[in-house]
């Protein structure tokens, strides 16, 4: 159909919708015949046929074969407003997620955990979509295999090999997201009332996720080289936790990287105390050099490795993965089928297509250079305001910063939100409330000078 | 890049992979320079550059700027075999799912719960993918809003209106699948140890799902008009269940439809006993005429309505939805963020695009006619073998059939699997084991005469 005809169809649909909204056509009443309406609207009969078909498809009107088209019985009540950021909501672990996900385009989001769209590999994604539109009909319409697309799992096994993680593709399960991967593992490994260790500070959504599992959460101070090993050992003795959830590669929110000696000591303690470790490696592609991975040292005995593509490829394609010991795979697949049934082909095919595209590696190289620059600029701008980066991260997008003395981060975040700026206050990253005067900045989302003007104003 | 060049790049990549596999290029060793390798392979330097880039992207080789390309440190172990259907696995609620999802193309699948690819609207899907490849970069790369694509929720609200369900778009949450919708609701509504009612027989995956929630499951006999109301009341009195999970529209596995009087009585009982009802309406688009919906009678007070697009649009696009009372939405969104973070744009945009396409309604009309024909043929073929349909369903794809006396369905299913045919034995649909001589047939997957030949042979 030509573009011009499409417009006519849409105009005709809109005319009918308006008559229905204004009750010129009441619910249940018969629509004019196609011939009469075509004359009425001065359009062709085929335009009216198409408009009636599409309005039937969306449920606005109903087709009764042999009798004609009727206005649908009940109109859905109109939504008064889309849900927007709530200024009065308590600053809890879900606060930053909801603000960031719900905010409209007017908001600046130095507190959010992902890149702006213009930093993502959109050309490769468009190419992948066009190529997917030519895939065979099984890929377009059927469930995927329980583990997920084989070729992508082979790719991920090779990539894991690059980090020293020795895994067969059959040890990899694709999931709906990185978060969902952790969620499935928690269901697989935990019972309500169990104890879980996280870092202090850690990614705030770990707190929200673990709350949904009704487990007890304790935290261990995080140093620039990994968790504080002495405190970690004390926690193991005192609380007998089943699980430790952390980031490998680049730590969220601190941007810190694990040192080999800390990795080795934590693993020794894990073995002594029968602790399982989930390492969430979603920032892997933003590293300049590979930091140690627990899974590489441990050989996937008691470490489960998870990842996703939301940070460097697309958050619109939901796809994550689990790399685990072979004897856990069957149980994890059963759980996955029980709770979300089959995997889809689309996300996995799309991710694979972009990863395989030669341009993706170049995109990452350019991205890392750009990020490093922006990290430098952002750190300098913050330091000028008396906001001090805790460390100089070796990669990634996060700067974990201490506010000037006496400034409460949650309070600052509430006041910034009223000025259309979303911050990530330290309190949401720490269950011990030890980070109340810290803020996490995302350098990639901190390019607009207005952010620093407002901060200066609010701190002044 | 021209197709011919692409082939050369792939050939070059394959040549390098073979040298690595054969250890001509050992892990850690430096690859030949681009110039030398281009001469070696008789290809252009740009072909080698592209091949090296793509091999870097997949992690087979590593680029060290200023130094060259190196074979990645460790090769991932090769998978010995993809997981195939396991003949010896116990026939439990996950048995049919796994057999159906894992089976290769050689298997006939009258036991599976979805349509063959050729019955799905692939033209509209291809068109939607092409159109998505031209979407703006936020759609291509960013998280969606917490509730999911607004326009799709408006569409679904109008569609629900067509079933008499009066819901605002803000009462609708998009999920990763229909199963995931039920899973989220179970997490929202249930505690371990609670009691849940299902139909006897019911969709087998409800059993698997509820097992993951550690609840007690009881079942009530299902009649051709809905649950047996007297038994339902007794179960409410005896077990004080919190939740009843059932199908509306078309029942799985029986193909039965709810009558208005049963719907009304069940709702009255639900109110008296403070019971919540989840109605899973994933077969809605296969009805010839709309059966009653609990949510329409109840006004979404104590009924939650869920659906997906896997059965009539595509199972490759993972997208489901929840329609619930307004005061539950915030809690459900929080749970969704905690356990799977943001929604993606892709699936929702794709589904919306197909639903809006005028061709989709026509596709459904043709599909329903074809299904009705096939149902007739299949029922006749089964009856000839002494396999008797329980009822003549008013729509959908399922025929719930009684086997000849003395034939055990699970045993028959095991023997059929050895002949490359996947059946859905009654035992997996019933926790009381009252359906051991029933089998569910999917008419859309029962067109191959071999199925009936093998059945005749196995029953003979």
Automatic annotation (TrEMBL), chains A, B:
Keywords: DNA-binding, Pyridoxal phosphate, Transcription, Transcription regulation. Residues 6-74 form the HTH gntR-type domain. The keyword Transit peptide does not apply. One of its GO terms (molecular function) is DNA-binding transcription factor activity. It comes from the Bacteria. Gene3D superfamilies: Aspartate Aminotransferase, domain 1, Type I PLP-dependent aspartate aminotransferase-like (Major domain), Winged helix-like DNA-binding domain superfamily/Winged helix DNA-binding domain. PANTHER family: HTH-TYPE TRANSCRIPTIONAL REGULATORY PROTEIN GABR, TRANSCRIPTIONAL REGULATORY PROTEIN. In the C-terminal section; belongs to the class-I pyridoxal-phosphate-dependent aminotransferase family. This is GntR family transcriptional regulator. It comes from Kiloniella spongiae.
């Amino acid at each position: 159909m030509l573009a011009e005809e499409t417009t006519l169809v849409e105009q005709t649909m809109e005319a009918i919708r308006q008559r229905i909204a204004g009750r010129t056509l009441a619910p249940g009443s018969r629509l004019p015949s196609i011939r009469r309406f075509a004359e009425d609207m001065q359009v062709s009969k085929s335009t009216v046929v198409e408009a009636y078909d599409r309005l039937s498809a969306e449920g606005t009107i109903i087709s009764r074969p042999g009798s004609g088209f009727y206005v649908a019985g009940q109109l859905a009540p109109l939504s008064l407003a889309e849900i927007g950021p709530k200024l009065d909501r308590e600053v809890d672990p879900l606060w930053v997620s909801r603000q960031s996900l719900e905010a409209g385009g007017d908001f600046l989001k130095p507190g959010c955990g992902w890149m702006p769209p213009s930093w993502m590999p959109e050309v490769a994604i468009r190419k992948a979509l066009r190529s997917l539109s030519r895939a065979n009909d099984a890929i377009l319409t059927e469930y995927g295999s329980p583990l997920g697309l084989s070729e992508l799992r082979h790719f991920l096994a090779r990539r894991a090999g690059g980090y020293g993680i020795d895994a067969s593709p059959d040890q990899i399960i694709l999931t709906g997201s990185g978060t969902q991967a952790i969620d499935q593992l928690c269901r697989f490994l935990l019972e309500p009332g169990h104890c879980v260790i996280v870092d202090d500070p850690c990614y705030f959504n770990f707190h929200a996720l673990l709350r949904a599992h009704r487990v007890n959460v304790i935290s261990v101070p995080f140093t620039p080289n990994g968790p504080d090993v002495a405190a970690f050992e004390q926690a193991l003795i005192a609380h007998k936790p089943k699980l430790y959830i952390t980031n490998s590669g680049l730590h969220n929110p601190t941007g810190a990287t694990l040192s080999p000696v800390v990795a080795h000591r934590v693993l020794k303690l894990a073995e002594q105390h029968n602790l399982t470790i989930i390492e969430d490696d979603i920032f892997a592609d933003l590293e300049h050099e590979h930091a140690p991975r627990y899974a590489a040292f441990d050989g996937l005995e008691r470490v489960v490795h998870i990842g996703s593509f939301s940070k460097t490829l697309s958050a619109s394609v939901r796809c994550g993965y689990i790399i685990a010991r072979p004897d856990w795979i069957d149980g994890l697949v059963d759980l996955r089928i029980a709770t979300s049934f089959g995997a889809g082909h689309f996300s996995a095919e799309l991710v694979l297509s972009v990863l395989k595209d030669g341009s993706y590696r170049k995109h990452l190289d350019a991205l890392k250079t750009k990020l490093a620059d922006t990290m430098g600029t952002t750190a300098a701008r913050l330091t000028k305001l008396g906001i001090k980066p805790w460390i100089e991260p070796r990669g990634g997008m996060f700067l974990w910063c201490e506010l000037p003395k006496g400034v409460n981060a949650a309070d600052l975040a509430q006041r910034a939100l009223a000025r259309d700026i979303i911050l990530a206050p330290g309190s949401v990253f720490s269950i011990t409330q030890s980070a109340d005067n810290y803020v996490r900045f995302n350098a990639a989302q901190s390019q607009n000078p207005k952010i620093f003007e407002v901060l200066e104003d609010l701190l002044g």
